[in-house]
Amino acid sequence: MRNLLKVGLRRLVTSPERYPVGDRNARIVAVAARKGGVGKTTTSVNLASALARYHGKRVLLIDLDPQGHVATALSKQVRRGGGPLSAVLEDDKGMEVLDAITTSDIENLDLTPLDDNLGMTEDLLGTRIGKEFILRDKLKVTRSHYDVIIVDCPPNLGNLTLNGLCAADQVLIPCDPSPLALKGVDALVDTITQVASRLNPQIDVLGVLLTRVDGRNITLNDAIVREIERSYGAALLPVRIGINSSLAKAQLEGRDIYDFDSDSRGARQYRELSDVIAAEL
Ligand SMILES: Nc1ncnc2c1ncn2[C@@H]1O[C@H](COP(=O)(O)OP(=O)(O)O)[C@@H](O)[C@H]1O
Ligand SMILES: [Mg+2]
Prior knowledge:
Blueprint: H1 5-13, E1 27-31, H2 40-55, E2 59-63, H3 69-73, H4 85-90, E3 102-103, E4 109-111, H5 118-125, H6 134-138, E5 148-152, H7 159-167, E6 170-175, H8 179-198, E7 204-210, H9 218-232, H10 245-253, H11 257-260, H12 265-279
Parallel strand pairs: 1-5, 1-6, 2-4, 2-5, 6-7
Antiparallel strand pairs: 3-4
Helix pairs in contact: 2-12
């Protein structure tokens, strides 16, 4: 029997290609943790910036967190343009994330702009067929224009985070040295395991990144590091991010750490992290 969808009907629902396909194939890295305040946004912003500045990578930074901290953290460097990511995620007529992005003063770094409606998108996605794969679909052409796409995920395990995990090749898990954050890593690794078995078999953990490490609190740090090593072994990344007030000040100023204070310890450590990650791209 003739399959109407495959012959004529399909043409009615397929929209024309809006963008030419590029010649890259981005690695998609979701930055996720089941706890707020552990440095997800600080890591997303400064890692993205270091990969663009020092490794010449074409980088796209996607803010999946309705709090919109990425655009705020780069408010002095983001240029005009782009549109809301929520409109792309809610569209079913072939829009791409490329329709949302804006450029920045940092060469090779693009990002999604501030979007007040992303919180509502979280609920709307729940009504869609294949709701976990919307972002992945919207990156099909977009990823061919970048080397790396970094996705800053919200702390809750909602539809937006699930979309981040289903689009991702790898997950970077920031964790501050506190027992609560460690529990969050356990919960997230459980989630990633389920996502791997049911939704996105190619997902992998890029690593656990210790952030906000207070050099004076040696006993607690050592205990947490031992615990992470015991549970996750090689997943613990060799670079650790110490507490550094320049990182917080840069975020408040709306500039990446390399523009704000490129000699700071935070700048050095995030650059080291970018070296580790760029080496295996
Ligand atoms: N290494 C650090 N040293 C000092 N302050 C930091 C560091 N990392 C993050 N912060 C600050 O801690 C707060 C939470 O960090 P943020 O990256 O926004 O966390 P999340 O995105 O996980 O909620 C922000 O005010 C940020 O500037
Ligand atoms: Mg954040």
